[in-house]
Design brief:
2 domains; alpha/beta; globular; about 325 residues; Arc Repressor Mutant, subunit A; Aspartate Aminotransferase, domain 2
Length: about 325
Amino acid sequence: MSHGPEPIDLALSPRPSGLTITRWLYEEIRTAILEGRLRRGVPIPPTRVLAVQHKVSRRIVVNVFGQLRDEGYLSAVTGSGTRVSDNIPEDFLAPAKAQPKGRQSPEVRRRAARPFLPIQPSLSEFPMEIWARLEARGLRTISTADLADADPAGSPALRSAISAHLGVARGVSCSPEQIVITSGTQQSLDLLARVLIRPHDRLWIEDPGYKDAAEIFRLAGARVVPISVDAYGMQIPEFGRVAPRAVYITPAHQFPLGVALRLDRRLELLRRTREQNVILIDDDYDSEFRFAGQPIPAVKGLSGSEHVFLLGTFNKALPDRAC
């Protein structure tokens, strides 16, 4: 009598020294999917079976499965267990172009970290000595010409460096000319609201969501429509007869719940907004902060995302005033 999927031999390679068990198991399963050793649609053994088979904690396997589901590599169907997804993120990523790296010349200011402070990472982990050396090296390259005739979109060298970083870290193909440097996400939202939103335009935003964003759009005259969020991100409704002017989302790390927008919902939202000529605003804050595994690719990195505005920030990865 069959009692579920037969154990799958993932041919796990030995765990390298210094690599956590969670990261190792995640990379091994993801690589097996990408290389085709775990075929699309194949059922995955239960977490308990894999834990015993590979002599790891079941909690670790559960966490790894959860991340792989969030990223779109696995799918869970009630009554059918967990399977390899028929479509994985790499199927939809647009090719990223490598861009030359520019120079950076940020400042550094020390701040004391306090426990349980929201939207602030562990500042004690920041490599201050390395950053100070890089800052000094950058300052030596500055001339008086850099102090005048500044580009309104930001330093060309900085935009070139950000373009290269986005291609590698977020799977986004863009040129430096497509990047605008602002003082922060709120200024970016204010600029978008001023340029894109007309009085009484409908704008969808996650509920619960980022209240400051909602207020910025309201001040621009938008009619803000809250859209419910569940364990898989925004619940995508039908557009109906009157489509919204724009949709604002935090897909990689929903604010404030922290869930990731499931891959099928990303693709559906991308398709609908593209077909209805609706602007999609992807607030990619905190996207690179993960307890384990690689960051979830940005919506802007998916094919057919020309109508998407991507917002990003360094103020969690670097000390204040460091970017």
